[in-house]
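Researcher: I've got a protein sequence and the SMILES for adenosine-5'-triphosphate. Could you write out the 3D structure of the bound complex as C-alpha cells? I'd like something to compare against our soaking experiments later this week.
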Amino acid sequence: MTNLNKIAIINMEGVSKRYLPDTLALYDVHLHITKGEFVFLTGPSGSGKTTLLRLLFCAEKPSVGEIWLDGMALSSITPSQLPYLRRKIGVVFQDFKLLERHSVFENVALSLEVTGLTGGHIEKRVKQIIERVGLGDKIKRFPPQLSEGERQRVAIARAVANRPQIILADEPTGNLDRPRAKEVLSILEELNAEGTTIICATHDERLYERGYKRTLRLYDGILNSP
Ligand SMILES: Nc1ncnc2c1ncn2[C@@H]1O[C@H](COP(=O)(O)OP(=O)(O)OP(=O)(O)O)[C@@H](O)[C@H]1O
Ligand SMILES: [Mg+2]
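Model: Sure. Here is the predicted complex with adenosine-5'-triphosphate in place.
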C-alpha cells in the first residue's frame, strides 16, 4: 500500500490539554492513525492515556491544537453534529458501567435505540454481537450474575453493536486473568481484521510486549510516537 492510499482517520496536531488549576495532562501531541490500524497506547498511571481518548470522543476539548476525526475538525463540531460523530466511535471506558437492572440483551440493545434501527433489526443485531463475544447462553442474565471477564465482554458488545469505524478501549483487560485478557484481545483483533480502527490504552504488558503492533508511549503527557 502506498502512502497515498493510507487514509488518516485520526489526526492530532499540536494538542495540549490543561486541567484546572495546574495539571498539564497532554503536551504538544502530534498523532496520525490510519484507517484500519490497531494501536496500543501505553504509559504510566497519570501519563494522559484516558485524557487522549476522551479528547477523541469529544468528552473533553483540547486547550491548544486541533483534532480531526475522519476529516472532521473537532473544534468546529456543532452540538447537533456530535451524535453523528459519536456514532462513528465505540468506547470501552475504564469505568465501564453496565446497567445492573437490565439483562445482557438490554444493555447492548439500549446502545442501538438511538440509531433509529427498528425493533426487529435491533434484536437480530444484538443477538449476533452477543454470540460473537461468546455470551449467547447468558443473554438473559443480569450483570451481577456474570464474571468480571464476561462483564467486560458485554461492555465490548455494547461498544461495537452499531458497527463503529473506530473503537477506543481504555484498559479493556484490567482485572482479567491471562486467558480472559487474551479473549478480549482476540475480539478486538477480529473487529480490526474487518477494518475497524482500534486504539487500546493499557498498562497490560501482556498485550503489547510481543511488539507486533504499533505502540505509542506517553510519559507525563508527552507522546513518544515511533
Ligand atoms: N478531570 C480532571 N481534572 C483534573 N485533572 C485531571 C482530570 N482527569 C485527569 N486529570 C489528571 O491528568 C493527568 C492524566 O490523567 P489520565 O487519566 O489521562 O491518565 P492515565 O494515563 O489514563 O492514567 P491511568 O493509567 O491511571 O488510568 C493526571 O495527572 C490526572 O490526575
Ligand atoms: Mg486512564
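Model: Confidence is low (pLDDT under 50) at residues 1-5. Residues 49-50, 94, 170 surround magnesium ion (ligand 2) (CB under 6 Å).
Researcher: Great, I'll pass this along to the crystallography team.
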